Amino acid sequence: MRFFERQLLTLCTAALLAAAPAPALAAGAEEDAKTLFARGRELRGAGQCEQAIIAFRSALEIYPEGLGALRNIAECEEALGLYASARRDWWDLRRAALQSTEAKYAGWSEDAELRYRALGSKVGTLALKVQGAEGRQVRVALDGKPLDPRLLGIDLERDLGVHTIELFYGGAAPLTERIELTPGARRVVALTVPPPIAARDAPAAPSAPAPVPSSSGARTGGYIALGVGGAGAIATVVALAVRAGAVSAVEEGCSPAGDGAYVCPPSLQGDYDTGRTASTLAGVFAGVGLVGIGAGVTLLLLSPPSPASAAQGAPAARGALRSAELSLAPWPGGLGSRLRVRF
Fold first, then answer.
1. Domains in the chain, ordered, with CATH?
2. Higher-confidence residue: 8 or 134?
3. Which of 16, 35, 138, 264 makes the best surface tag, with the fewest CB within 10 Å?
4. What predicted TM-score, i.e. pTM, was given to this entire model?
């Protein structure tokens, strides 16, 4: 039953308030406003304008028709150096006095306009601009209060002193700037939205490594040429050995005929022909060997080191082929070949 009793009491109270005559309610509000107004006058007389403004504001909220509270607010703000706030309240007082039918407020609109214009040279103005916010949700706060986006770029009158501007753009912390307004100064603050993190902190694409001359083809060709040259050298040695054997047989069984010629019996004609053929082949194989080894050594000496060898440093360089030499020299019974390689 308690719940229904409370509901009934609430309904009755609402009905009584609705039935109460409006003049009675207005009279009560006016009396409360007068009490607060008197408290504000005491504080102002004691030099405590900041506390007095609070009392006057409360009185004005309770009874907006009491324009004396608004006038005292404007005068206190002017005394505190809050010229921009005072100008706004003087202009509000001018408009309210023009609308009022109370005889006691006659001439107040003219007084308010004079004070409004007199403070024009003392206020500072501030214009805020936002750059780089295309397609992004941003929010600007001035002295801790959100700023209507429609006011961006417009000169705003603000009280003298330090003001804090914050730009909220979705980052971990807002961009913050503090500026100081002096009498008659006009400040323009441009806030630049940082680029998105993905575009700002993305790692740079790795640059392509400098082209390294390929050494595998030249070195492979060098080794092949050395192999051919080595095979030619071996074939030369074999041909020279065959020739030596044939020459020995011809010298033992044939008679010299002068000018390096021999008179041989028919049975030794084959050895004689073999010796001549072997001598010819030895010259051919020796040429092939010289050309192959020379080309192979040249390719190996001119080819750049491999990347692995360059990274490892000196050990690989010390093992590289430096020079090679193939020479033919007369040996007993024919030609001999000699291969010298330096590392």
1. 22-118 (1.25.40.10), 124-196 (2.60.40.1120), 216-342 (no CATH)
2. 134
3. 16
4. 0.49
